Amino acid sequence: MRRLAIAGWFALVAAAIAAAPKASDAASHWSYQPVVRPALPSVKNSAWALNDLDRFILAKLEAKGLQPSPEADPRALIRRLYFDLIGLPPTPEEVDTFVRECSAIGSRQSAIANLVDRLLASPHYGERWARHWLDIAHYADTHGFERDQLRPNAWRYRDYVIAALNTDKPYDQFLREQIAGDVLAANSKLQTPNSELMAATGFLAAGPWDFVGQVETRSDMLKRAARADDLDDMVTQVLTASMGVTINCARCHDHKLDPISQREYYSLWAVFAGVKRGDRELDSAATARREAERQQLQKRLREVTAELGRLTGEGLDLADMVGGGNGRGTGIKGAGLDLRTGNVVKDKLGYHRDIQVNRRQKPEWPDSTTPKFVQWIFLPDGKSPVQLANQTTASNLPPTSGHAWDAIRNGPLNAQVSTTLADVDFASAGHSILGLHANAGVTFDLAEIRKASGFTKLRFTAQVGFGASGTAAATRADFSVFAGQKLLFQRLKLRKDETARVDVALPDTVATLTLVATDGGDGIGHDLLFLGDA
User: Fold this and answer.
1) Are 479 and 397 spatial neighbours (Cβ–Cβ below 8 Å)?
2) CA-CA distance, 497 to 16, in Å (whole number)?
3) Region class of 331: left (phi > 0), else alpha (psi between -120 and 50), else beta
4) Per-residue pLDDT, 13
5) Is residue 47 part of a domain?
């Protein structure tokens, strides 16, 4: 019986293939014929037809022996028009007004026309009808794939479609801009702003995107497969939206229904092969204006929070300063300073064995208004003094391996497991973590801190310990504190199960505070040193 069933199934498939239209037959389908203006059909009840479209509808009804439905009453009609054109209900007052206008002798059609014009002029019209095109374009605010990622700028394409409908943009122009807006933007004679043309090309990138296959994977095969899916989506989207054909069937074989061969499908692939997804600035002037406004607001925020801290006597947070803040919470959580370059980094870094030791790196802040409270960072080797300022050097440091891990961070370090010291979780609200994995040093500019905060008497307090797992191998590290070139505090050979409490006054005359973590002479393995509430 199983053999007979399989044989029958193959017979059905063969019959279906034989019955499928050939390319020449498919090309004769009405949807592929040139657009023509047909003659108006004759109808019996010509008085019912108010326009040419009505005549076509009435002709079909009469051919089937049917009569048109009665006219809708004004209350039903206004609700239909509102929901159909703008997707929202009318207010009771709008319903009453429309009913009165329709009740006047001979004014029903005029009232309907005025209402339709008013709804077409509403911004909600574009919002209501754009959703149909956006559905075709697979629009979403996320990638819509495994490990879904947000698309923070996708809304610009959505707004382009809404505006196109609200301004009655010609359909052919609407298509051209979405398929080749970036190319059209190079033509200065066009009236459409370049920013609008660039936003229009979001059509090609609106569909699902395999973030894992495109970005995260190391497999060339998976990358090629993800790129193939991306090109298929572009080709399919353009042809489906503009011609209503299911071209993606031709990815594997000549199309069985539509007149598209596999060769033609891959020829269309070539058209879009140079298109790559990515963010692009649409309006540099507007971006610069917003950035200037943002920097002014950030500057004012820092001034206000500094004044609040001064009035309340609240201490300053060195970890926040490492994150580019003013010591009162304006820094970027998790941000770090790369010992190799001084650049601000957000990603986690790994093992460093090739950094030049004892060389000061000046932090490179991306925002020009960032407080310059962190003066230097460096990797000490303990064999030679480190120059901290023009006349200041740090000596008395234990010798180190000259290797490092991750970055100096406003928050936990890469691979840090524990954030608790002396039963206090410094990752919880109201606390802070300054990640300072051995070997690393950071110098703070006390002169600038005093100037910005208004404080004249300063103390440095913190708890210092390890963020390694309790099951990690035994390890030791050293922690040193310098005020200028004077060594104020040093704890050598600190074990991973120990916590050091630091509380030292900073002399009024010193201009720098330097914190140094070194590897305890046993390498940097598990030396995840951090400072709680520094």
Assistant:
1) no
2) 75
3) beta
4) 44
5) no
